[in-house]
Every structure is written in structure tokens, then in C-alpha cells.
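From the pipeline queue, job 12 of 40. The input is one protein chain; the requested action is below.

Action: predict structure.
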Amino acid sequence: MRSPLAAARIRRALATRRRRVVAGAVAVVLVAAAVAWAARPQRPGFRTESALVTVRSGPAGDQPVDLDTTLYLPRDASARHRVPAVLLAHGFGGTKESVRADAEDLAGHGYAVLTWTARGFGRSGGEIHLDSPDYEVRDAQRLIDRLAARPDIRLDTAGDPRVGVVGGSYGGGLALLLAAQDSRVDAVVPMITWNDLSRSFLPESTGKEPTEGVFKKGWAGLFFGGGGNVGSGPAGVSGNTAGQPEGAPASAGAPSPQPGAGPGTSSGRVPGGPADPSCGRFAADVCAAYLRIATTGRADAQAVELLRRSSPAGVLDRIKAPTLLVQGEADTLFPLTEADANARGIAAAGTPVRVAWFTGGHDGGAGPTSDSDRVKFLTAQWLDHYVKGEGSAPGGSFTFSRIAGFDALDRGLVATGYHTADYPGVAGQGRTEVTLTGPARPIANPPNGNPAAISSVPFAGAIGSLLNGVAGDIPGQHARFESEPLAEPVDVVGAPTVRIRAASPTGAAVLFVKLYDVDPKGAATLPDGLVAPVRLTGLPATIDAAQPVTVTLPAIVRRIESGHRLRVVVSTSDQAYATPAEPAVHTVALGGGPLTLPTVDAQPIPTTATVWRWALVGLLAAIAVGLAVVVLLARRRHRRQDSSVHPEYAGVPLAVRQLRKEYADGFVAVSNVDFEVHPGQVVGLLGPNGAGKTTTLRVLMGLTQPTAGEIYVFGHRLVPGSPVLSRIGALVEGPGFLPHLSGLENLKAYWRATGRPWAEAHFDQALEIAGLGDSVHRKTRKYSHGMRQRLAIAQAMLGLPELLVLDEPTDGLDPPQIAEMRRVLQRYATDGRAVLVSSHLLAEVEQTCTHAVVVTKGRIVASGPVEDIVGESPSVLFEVSDPDAARSVLDRLDGVRVLPGGDGGLVVDTNGTARSEVVAELVRAGIGVDRVVPRRRLEDAFLALVGENSRGSGDR
């Protein structure tokens, strides 16, 4: 008993401790608030001015068109404080609303930002001319004129504002064309855009002109067809959903409804006039060119000339504005080679150029946050120096990024950025050569291109890699050439090349060449769904006479791990492209020489995000270590306190004594459960839903603490973390596996976590039990429910534990697998081992278990050998020569009832009628009676014990 003085000291100490805890918590909150305030972006305010303005464009500059505009102005912009400006162009199918978030960011950064809806879209008038220098580009020039006339915009000279142009995809093409046409542009940041629009839609990977190119019908159909008839265009052709970095300048997001837009504008009609249903809001010459190409699958010189009119390729030498080219690696519309061609053409004129590749694109979205943040930083840095006149020159270094894995904190993808001093182009700085092997093969071109391989799908180019050959490459329509496993990893940065040969009785062939990364288990990945289309002409009839041609594959950024193989596939069809309608059989072979992989010697880019991430990881690690120490100390204390062995239960695998589990709200899940499991027994734990079965198993496995009672395993009192738990194998509350690992890898990872020697695992026996065959090498995310269940049972049996606890082990298994599981459990309960099974399949328990424990409403109502619980039978099993005829006879007897079941015989409730009388009636009817045995099932006994309508109190 404590003295009053001691009690007072204790109270003072507790009060002091409480004050310290409170003070510490307040300090933590204040520090967190200070950090959050310091990290919060401090943007100056801005105001907006929206207007429908009329500009004059066209070849002669005299055709009026209304453009829907919004100007974002920093609040401090005035005649005394002029600010630099940015023209922010949206993507195809978008409107000025698509870039609102980016405009606000730039305005907060001190720029006046002018956004507008391009002609032919949204509320703006006019027709779509595909960034024509006479129309869309001249429209933008008139907008620069309007900026120059404002008193709050900084000027270089009269009529020449300080202005940068930023845009993604359609807006990026406009930025380049505008810089070539108007010398007042001070800097441009074009993103995920094109060099030669004709090559983009009619690519050919051996160097032929677009008139010989292979029509990219999937993208063209969305770009031309959809954009012409819907005011908002094909959702996401450019912008966030189409691969622009989210939140980066010129993200050109999917279109938003325009305030005040009426039905006419939302339908895509030119305001004030009807739309041609064939062409929508496209100009007639653009629409006609598309219709000709889409009909024939080939381009004529006139169509190519029209597309090149809207291409930067012919005017790059006129671009004097410093240019930051941002291009996406996951882009089957405008791949990396488009930015490469732009960079080389602009640099040749002596203009400062910088190239940045990121992991997104039209098919890959914005990429990871770390990647989009890098793009935003590069954009701001470029504009600040060349438009605002602040900061040092960014230089011309090359940056790119690669997916590095998953973020352990938010489970999102993480990209690692790299840089090198000089831009190497898509040819790279170095070369790695890989030998391919494979025989010449005949491949069929299907009539009308159907069925076609699936490699890339607009906005989801990498879907082909998910198909893993199931639909990606059609049997009979492709040939494979493969390398040996790589001895060392290779970091590919650029466009690989390969030489092939082809022959055809038709003299021509359209082929699609792809490069797959094949892991040691055979899973093949087509990086970003990228394909090299090839049109070969003048081919010989036999492969022996064929000459090799060099195919330049799409530029990629990918690490090929050691042990992986490289596979080149040559296919005759692809869903994304137009192919010859006539059926034919070509022959393809390797052309000699290796597969050449470009490499770049680059350094990782350190970022503040990386530093903070590691700091946070370090903090979390310290917390985890502290918690681990606390847990270890608690477990050690438990082990010291519970190291004794109860002599009565030393040889008993499981003894449950007076178990009770009551929750804080008064709910009683288990009120009084008391049973034992002995060596050699298979014990079934039975009960209706909510009877307390799962709660009992959770307590048994140390997953929850009992309110009262004890559990002994081989005489050791069971507590959480008790060493004796290592003698138990369990499957409770369903299996949990790492989805990115195979079944075998999951088993090995589980066993490593136990810390026990490998020799004790008995993997062979466990895999035999699982019965998964070669599927054990597949990733578990591809498993069916039954496969996961079988793998979980094998995991429970690893190490052949002396006590096996299984909760619904046959869930998800088919009848043959259930029968096999029955035999497995019966074999397992030998050599001193025991099994406890919770199941609702009473027939299986009856055939599998030696003993049963029946629980209802948290109490045991029966336990013992199964045959004792079944007891005497009130029913009889008749095995007869004609069951249908016998059923008719028995139905006529008073009081006699044929029960369900019987497995080929008849189970009959005689209801007091003598069995001899029943047999006599059957014989008089000419029915042979082969066998008469008493019959009672476990189900009958179970229902008698718990009642047909019995419900438990509910497991938790």
C-alpha cells in the first residue's frame, strides 16, 4: 500500500509528463505549420479579361474571324510596371479552358498570359486549317499585335512585345510555325508536337518519302474525322489525357464547356453557319486530302504538300527564337524522332536549342509527378531567361527520364531524370550490338487487314505490351528473331536499327517491325507500343534473292536487364495502320549484321523532391526501428513469462480452454469454446455464419487477444509473437500475395521472412500440393481465385508444420481439386501432425475429418468423432435396380418420404414403416433391391444440433 506522500509524488510526476507531452505535441504542430507555410507557393494575384475579338487573317490578311480569348494579368501589371507576355496555345480538340490551370500558374509567376480558342473549335469562328501559316499562324500574329498595343505589356520596341509562345501538340506546332513567321517571338516551348505532319501520318522506317509511307489510320481517324464534326474534337487528342505533363505550361487539357456556349457552338458548327456533315469545321482542302488518303491508304503529292504547309520542317532555318523542345517517350502519334528533326533543323541556323524527353506523351499521359515537375521547371527556367530576362542561360544540355519503379509512399510511378552536356540525337553516343537468330519464315498478309495485330491504340499505345502475345501478334502473320539472354544490362536511349530481307510473289510488302523486351519467364513487353512501319517494293519472289534493308526502329528509353532477351518481330498487319487489302504470303528473314542499340553516357539529375523523399524515408525508418524495438522488447517479455510447458498438454497440438472474446461495445463473438486437437486427427470446426468460428481462429493465430480463456499449442501458452507459432501453418481470412511476384517467388519470400533454413521448407512437397504446374512461375496478379487459394494452402504447408489451421480451404476449388484436397489433408495428419479445418461444406467435412466441433452462438454444442456426432439414422439408403420406378412406388406409401441426395441410391425416411414392408412393396413391383443400409448425414446431425434457422451472433 502506497503512502499519501508517495501517491502525491506520483500524481505530480504524471502531471509533469502530461504537460511535456502536450507541449511537445504543440511544438510539432507549430513546426509543421511553419514548414507548410514556407513551402506554400506565394503567388501574386491576377485578374482576367475575356473577350470575343475579331482578327483578320487569310492569304491576303483580309478575312475576319472571331476568336474567344482570355488574358490573365498579374495584379501589379500596369503602365508603370509592364510585364512580359506568353501566348499559351491549346491542343487539337481543346479550347482556351484546356490551359486555364497553366495560364494561372504563369500569371502567378509574373507573366501576362493570353489564351484563345483556335479557329474551328469551341466558340471561335472559322474553319480548321491545321496550323496553316495563312490562318492559325496569322491569327496568332494578330494576337501579338494586340499585346503590343497594351500599356501594361513590356516592349522591346514599338509594336514588339516581350513574348514567349508555349503549346502542346497542335499548340506546339503553332509555336514553331509562329516563331518562323514572326520575328517578335522571343522564345518558344513546343511540347509533344510534330516536325513533318505528312511523315507523322504516313511514316516509313527505311527512309522513303511520305507518298510511300504507311497510313496511320487510327490516329488520323481521330485527328481528322473526330475533330471535324465535334466542336470539342476527339477528347484528349492533346493535353493532359493525351500525354501533356499535368499542370505544366501548355498542358492543353481535355476541353471544358465554355461559359455561355450555346447549342450551335457545342455541336462544332461555325457560329452563324451550318457545318458540312462530311467535313465538319475542317477547311475543304484539308478534308478532301484526308478523305483521299483514308479511302486509298496512300498519299498523293498534293496531300503531302498540304500537310507540309502546316509543318515546321520547311521553315526551321527561319526560327531565331531560343527553343526548348519537350517530347514524350510514350507517344505513337508524334514520337521522339519528330523532336529530333526539329532540334537539328533549328540548331543548324545557330539558334539556341535544348531537348528534353519525358516518360509521358500522347499515349502515356503526364508521366509520374517527378517527371512533370521536371518539365515545368525546365519551361519556367527557359521563359525566365529568354523572355523575362532573369537567371543564367539554361544551356543546350540534353535531359531525358526513365521509369524507375514505384514510390513506396504513394504507390505511384517514379521517374529518374538524366542529363548529358550535348544532345546526341536518336542515334545515341555509343552502340551496343546484339546478335539475333532465327530462320526465314513465310508470313501471311490477311485480306482487308483482318485480323490485325494490336500493338498501339491511340491514347494507350502501351496496351500491346499488356497483351503479352495473346492478341499482339497474330499466328501465321509474323516472324520472330531472338537474341541470347544478355550478359549485362543495356540502357537504350535512342532509335535501334536492324537489317531484314523480304520476298514476295507480288513484288511488294507492307511490314511492321517491333522490338520486344523478353524477361527470363518469357513475358514480352513492347516498349510504349511503338512500331516501325515499312513499305518495300521491287521485291524478288524468293528470299535467296532478297537484298537487306536497314530499318530504323522507334526511339525508346529503356533499360534491358541482364538475363533478358531481345526479340524482333516482323508482322504483316497492325490495327493502327492501313495495310494492303489483297491477301498475300511474304517471306522475311534477317538481313545480316546485329541489332544495334544506341546508348548515352548520362548522369542522374538530383532533385529537391528526391532529397525530401529520402529525408522522409529516413524519418519513417527511424520510427519503424523504434517501433520494432518496442515490439521486440514486448515479445521478449512475453516469451520470458510464458516459456513454461503445461505438462497435461505437452503432447497435444492444440488445446482450447474456456475461450471467450468480447468486444468493447459488449458484442460477444465467442462465449465458451473448449476443445482439443490430437495428433493424427483432422478436426472440422463447424457452425452457421456468425457462430464464432473465424474469431476462434483469429485468437488461435494471435491476430486478436481473447477476453478470457487460454490456448495451448504443445503445452505452450499461446500469446502474440510466441515462438510456438512457428509450429503452426495457417490460412485464415484469405491469402495475401505480392501481385508483381510469381507464385514460387511469393513462397520463397514468405519462407525467407520466417528466418528458417531453406532445407526445412520442403518446397517440392508444397508445390505438389498446390498443383499449379508451370503456372507457379506466373505473376500472382494473373491468378484466378482458385489458383490463389491453392497457393495459399501450399504456403501454409511450407515446413510441414505440426499443426495446420485452415479457414475454408476449398473455397474457389473445383470438385476434382476438392477431392484432391480431401486426400491431402488426410495424408497430412500422420506422423504426429494434426489439422484443424473450418468449413461450411458439411459433406466434405464428413468425408475428410475424423472429428468435429460444432459451434453455435459462440458455444460448443457437440464435439467428438464424426460418426458419434452423426449417431443413429432415422433414414435408410436403398440401392435399387430402377431408382425412378422405385421412387414412384415409395411415393404411394403412406408416411414414406424420399429425401434429397443418395449418390445414385434413394435415401428414404420410413417414418415408422417397417423396412421389410418397404422392401416387399418394391419387390412386388418388380424392382430389384440390392442393398438396404441405415443412412444419416452429418448435415442432418448439424441441423438437429443448431436448428435449420439458427443464426450466430456474428463474427468479427
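Job complete. The longest strand covers residues 46-57.
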